[in-house]
Here is the input.
Amino acid sequence: MVRELFETMEQLRGKLEELLGVVQSKRKAIVQRNFEELEKCIALEERLILEIKKIETKRLGFLKERIGENKLTAEIVDKLSKELAAELPERLADHFFYLRQKIRELGGRINSVNEQNMYLVENSRQMLKMLFAKLKGEKESLIVNQKV
Amino acid sequence: MGLSRIFNISTRSLSAYQQAMDVTAHNVANAGNPNYSRQRVLLKSEYPQMDNKFSWGMGVKVEDVRRVHDSLIEAQIVENNQKYTANKKESELLSQIENVFGEPSEYGLSNYLSKFFDSWSSLSASPNSIEARKEVVFASQNLANKVSSIFKQFSNIKTTIANNFSEKTTQINDLLKQIKDLNFQIYNAAVHKQNANDLEDTRDKLINDLSSIVDVKVSYDQNNVATVYIGGVFAANAQSMNTFKMVRTDDELSLRTEKGNIKAFITKGEMSALSDVYSKKIKGYESSLNTLMQTLVSEVNAVHEKGYSMNQPPQTGIAFFDSFKDGKLSINAEVLNDPKKIAISADGTSGNGDYAVEIANLKDKKVLNGMSLTQNYAELVDEVGNHVNNAKQAEESTNLVLQQLQNEKDSYSGVSIDEEMTKLLKFQKSYDASAKLIKIANEVLDTLINIV
Here is the structure.
């Protein structure tokens, strides 16, 4: 069971690293207004989030099974992690803590880039609103100015 | 990665992003401006920062905002614009000249010439008829008035052309002043590594305006400062400029520098048409008409002077025309005052109209360049017509080339509203999807970070 938990955490780390790369590329695509790249990033992000959700459901399933409770809190999981680490050889215990730390770090970095992306997206929407109004005006004036 | 570093990247990226959006807004705002060149942002990754063994990406920065601009097309537009405006102006001026001749019509010179010869023919049938003699005088006066009117209109057109040339000279000096000032600003921008796209657009438009007036050659240095030459003479750069003046003589209109009186050789642009029509075309038509009228005077007088008048005693050696000078055909005052002095009798007897027949026959007699006077005149009218047609055709064809080049420029440098709209719609869709994904990701990650 511990081995399976390790595997899911390793998988999570891999997927989170991938996701971090994608959200960073997405930020660049939004800034550069590179539509093709943005579309690619969105498709990748969708797939990765789905995969992360699946792995996460699996991981939470192990934890719930181990504790025998359906409700998980940060304190419970922290306590359980320490128990699990105590059961493990030192080398594996270190890796287990490293994985937890790495997942937290990756999650934090993804959140941070996502915050920037959200800001960019919100501003882009505002900008789009303005541009649409401008374009509509331009288009109408162009039509009005057409020679008949 | 520290919080401050993330903040810096974010700030830099946002700044870059805002500049990109500003450029788009600027593009859109100028969509209706035909002289505007689309601008695009060149983004570059910031240099990564080394931290122990790791290299941290530092986001993006705006490297440059460039004009989407094809100097080859621009140069061709300038070149063709010069040809087009020259052809257009020439076609316009020659059409005015064609109207002066007013052929074929009742009021054209050929009709007055025909009536003149016909009046002699009528007189030959009734040599003693005072009415027929008056008719000859009347037809001659009409012919003289028509010729005088043609030369007067030529003179008016020449004055209009000279005034137009003078206005264009003023325009050239104004444009050169603006180009010089813009060049200076562009130079300053280049030295301070600032963006001068809009200044360059404005300067290109001014150069284009200049090229529609006169021969322009432009060279650019490494700072994109344009050195402008007019008709082979230095006109302006960033530091100095030449002021031009018009020099008018009866034979020629020319453009010369105020300092040094250096002549610009104009072969293109509106001014080349003005100069060409003034110095060559009108001069050529005047010369042809002069020769024609002088031949008429000498041929008619040669016959008339041989004849005898109707008054008693009959007189001979009377000239019918005094002269043809400066576009004015003068009829002998003696004849004008007394039609009996029209000398058509070959032997001095009353009722003889032999010389009237001879003068009437001048209509078809080959007296000039192997052709009759009327044929010579028809040739001149044909020549004017051909010049008009050639100029119109040249105007149309250069206009087509210019339109094609303009379309090429627009497709390259212009802003398409539809394209921008479609792009924005796509972006809107992507932004919506992106926002949703960010929310979902946040939910998943919040759980993950908290209970890992």
Q: What stands out?
A: Chain A has one domain: 2-114.
